[in-house]
Backbone:
């Protein structure tokens, strides 16, 4: 049966994630993979989670297993509000920050509207923008003649895919741009607290609270399996998100929220995070030193101060999309950088994750990647 006639007009716009396709094709555990955007499994506080699960059931009883408020359970909203110095009324819990991106796009943009985002940018965000049939444009290229821009999407800290962080002047310029164009800002910030060098910079929200939806996530500071995030923003915007979310999931997972509230509220999150940050710093340093040791001349990379990724720019002659099958066959995986560009350009770039790969696979993985690149110069 041909089902295509049943599909909505949105369906042809859905963008299939090339990253997830890679995961389907190959068992990444069996090779040297720098592909997935996964946290280190040693960052998961397994024993603490076991203890907390019992505590949550004891403390909250069947409430922890019941439906909850669409905004999130009050205990978690309060812990987040306290941590970030905002009123509880400005906190909405989400079923992951991916949902935060999706729901923000859904309430703000119509088909044909423009989302301003500097490429390369997070693939999951591009998927949401495409699903709602918006157009993505670099803020530098935008003029009002191009169409209606509704919001500017930015990952200011340790960007996925590049690992880059916006400087304070860049943040100020971005806010000025948003004010000048009178657009909102969606600040996607899942890595903000995973900083292992340098000094924290003011969030975009702190510079423009009146026009920013700040998206946070428990994925990199607790565990992604819980699928929990939050949005901090003006009440009038959260009110629309609240109504929209009712049709998406009724409420975020209640048991998980109590777990997160206990974990964050007790200080266990900070203790665990400082261990994770120390491990990631070491992994990044190792990765940078391996790149210096093995990569041929002409290859450049970012030196992230936090987060999960770094970004390689190769000589123009190397096509990382075309090189990918050989790399996989020889036992090393990465994500081609062009997937993070809405127009598929920059085929001489790649994203490397260094937080998930087994320590002993890092050196052979970088050496192998360097050898494949060298053979194509
Ligand atoms: C920039 C960015 N935003 C959002 C997400 C999604 O995170 P979550 O697990 O909270 O949905 C990711 C995950 O990799 C990300 O890199």
Residues:
């Amino acid at each position: 049966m041909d089902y295509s006639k049943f599909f909505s007009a949105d369906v042809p716009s859905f963008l299939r994630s090339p990253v997830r396709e890679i995961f389907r094709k190959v068992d990444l555990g069996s090779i040297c993979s720098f592909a997935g955007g996964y946290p280190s499994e040693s960052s998961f506080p397994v024993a603490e989670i076991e203890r907390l699960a019992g505590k949550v059931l004891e403390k909250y009883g069947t409430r922890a297993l019941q439906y909850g408020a669409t905004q999130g359970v009050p205990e978690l909203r309060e812990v987040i509000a306290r941590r970030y110095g905002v009123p509880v009324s400005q906190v909405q819990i989400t079923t992951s920050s991916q949902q935060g991106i999706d729901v923000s796009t859904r309430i703000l943009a119509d088909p044909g509207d423009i989302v301003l985002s500097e490429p390369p940018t997070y693939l999951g965000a591009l998927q949401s923008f495409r699903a709602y049939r918006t157009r993505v444009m670099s803020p530098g290229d935008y003029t009002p003649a191009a169409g209606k821009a509704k919001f500017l999407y930015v990952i200011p800290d340790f960007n996925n895919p590049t690992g880059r962080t916006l400087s304070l002047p860049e943040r100020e310029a971005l806010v000025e741009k948003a004010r000048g164009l009178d657009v909102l800002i969606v600040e996607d910030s899942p890595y903000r607290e995973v900083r292992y060098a340098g000094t924290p910079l003011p969030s975009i929200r702190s510079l423009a609270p009146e026009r920013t939806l700040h998206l946070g996530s428990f994925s990199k500071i607790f565990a992604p399996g819980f699928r929990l995030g939050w949005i901090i923003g003006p009440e009038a915007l959260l009110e629309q998100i609240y109504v929209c979310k009712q049709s998406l999931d009724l409420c975020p997972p209640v048991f998980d929220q109590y777990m997160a509230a206990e974990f964050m509220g007790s200080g266990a999150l900070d203790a665990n995070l400082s261990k994770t940050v120390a491990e990631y710093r070491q992994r990044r340093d190792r990765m940078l030193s391996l790149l210096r040791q093995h990569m041929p001349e002409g290859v450049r990379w970012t030196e992230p101060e936090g987060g999960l990724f770094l970004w390689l720019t190769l000589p123009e002659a190397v096509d990382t999309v075309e090189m990918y099958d050989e790399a996989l066959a020889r036992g090393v995986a990465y994500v081609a950088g062009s997937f993070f560009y809405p127009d598929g350009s920059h085929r001489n770039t790649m994203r490397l994750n260094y937080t998930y790969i087994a320590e002993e696979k890092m050196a052979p993985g970088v050496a192998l990647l360097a050898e494949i690149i060298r053979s194509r110069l």
About this structure: The chain has a mean pLDDT of 96. The domain at 63-269 is CATH 3.40.640.10 (Aspartate Aminotransferase; domain 2).
